[in-house]
Design a protein that fits this description.
Blueprint: H1 5-18, H2 42-46, E1 49-66, E2 69-70, H3 73-76, E3 82-95, E4 100-115, E5 125-132, E6 136-142, E7 152-161, E8 170-173, E9 183-186, E10 199-211, E11 214-224, E12 229-233, E13 248-250, E14 254-264, E15 270-281, E16 297-310, E17 313-318, E18 321-327, H4 331-340, E19 348-351, E20 355-362
Antiparallel strand pairs: 1-2, 1-3, 1-19, 1-20, 3-4, 4-5, 4-6, 6-7, 7-10, 8-9, 10-11, 11-14, 12-13, 14-15, 15-16, 16-17, 16-18, 17-20
Length: 369
Amino acid sequence: MTMRPTTSLLIVCMLLLSASAHGQGCVAIRGFSSCSPSAFTNANLIGKGWQLSTNYRYFESFRHFRGTHEEADRLVDHTEVVNYATQASFGLTYNMDKRRGVTFVLPYSYFVRSSLYEHGRTERHSSRSSGIGDVRISYNLWLSNPDSAKRGNLMVSGGVKLPTGNFNYRDYFYNVRTDGAGEYRPVDQSIQPGDGGFGFTLEVQGYWKLAQRLFLFGNAFYLFNPMEENGTRTYRETLSALLVNEAVMSITDQYMARAGLNWNVSKKGWNVFCGARIEGIPVRDLIGGSAGFRRPGYVVSVEPGLDWMRGRHDLNVSVPIAVQRNRTQSVTDKENSEIRGTYRQGDAAFSDWLLNLTWSIRLGKGDAL
């Protein structure tokens, strides 16, 4: 049985949009809902209507890198920082027709961060945070009509990111005062639910038919955060007087790009796909200043996955596996290198893999697959 062209395109678009640009567990990459989870799937190509999507992610970051060099001794000495991240995004898309749509994404996160250095370096304790993140609203447009785009198509999106998430979430930190007592302080930047900045986003994604059941797909995303600092104190200046330039959190840009192949293996709606992806935080923002504390870096991953599409439902699971991790030198690292007269580069903790699970349902009318 030959798969219908519309079905093939639906499957590819599902793969394009089910994977979010959340970090591969890198402490440098905050848990923020970047790409819309399943912004366009069945409803987009079939026509006018609503689409509801949910996306779940989980990772544990614990491997420390300075540049591309892993500091394996951190695990041996049990001085590593461990982030446990559980994140869910809820997306609602209204498609005006087969080409145009508006997407609303609401993220929610629960983080646990275990460390020594944040608690006086004598005892290991955990800090926690939870709550909604930064809401994103975007307008999406396919450049060609899906009915006539038999070989391929390209979609562009533009939107805004609102500072709805708490960017000054606090928890109790032990052994941090001069008298040995603890106090409530802002949690680390990597587990703050929000970043405190108004931003805007640009995204492109597309597909190209290579054979009857084989497609090339890809997408790229960039979050512009023009605001420089959010005023949330890091207390890093209490660790060293040279870290006074890292006393306040930076509001950072974020990016992601991915490409791969999708193969339809069954007329029952089963597909397998695999690709490569890169995601991270740049050293300097494209617009606005880059002062304050940030952990810039990137992760290159191989991303295998499985997709099942039937009727009004789509279920997609992928597991990006890190193959290269790089904690790059930040602006404040460079400033401190000049002050000290010696090269300085901070570290960051990364995960080995990320679990990404997406389910979407078409709420409007349309042909079942």
